[in-house]
Write a structure and sequence with these properties.
Length: 121
């Protein structure tokens, strides 16, 4: 069974910084992509950033230049460094991983439980 556990959310003033972390544990053979999504009240969940096993990254336009995603393949962890935070970054942030639990098994998406990020103006 695979679990993704996020940490690092909280309350911060506009212009401040937060660092989110997510650790994947359990039966894991290999992880292709890890990423962060967010969902604000009344809005759809949206991609924030993702990083592939080769290190290539993608960012939402709204966070480019402010957020940095990184990954430790040996520890199955992914981090999101968020700088210059804005009130519109307020949302529940979810960790996501595209992985397979066993060698040559099916690839599946897994989600963490979410962590709240609140940016005050």
């Amino acid at each position: 069974q695979v679990q993704l556990v996020e940490s690092g959310g909280g309350l911060v003033q506009a212009g401040g910084s937060l660092r989110l972390s997510c650790a994947a544990s359990g039966s894991i053979s290999s992880i292709h992509t890890m990423g962060w999504y967010r969902q604000a009240p009344g809005k759809q969940r949206e991609l924030v950033a993702l990083i592939r096993s080769d290190g290539n990254t993608n960012y939402a336009d709204s966070v480019k230049g402010r957020f940095t995603i990184s990954r430790d393949n040996a520890k199955n962890t992914v981090h999101l460094q968020m700088n210059s935070l804005k009130p519109e970054d307020t949302a529940v942030y979810y960790c996501n991983a595209f992985l397979r639990a066993v060698v040559a098994g099916p690839w599946s998406y897994y989600w963490g439980q979410g962590t709240q990020v609140t940016v005050s103006s």
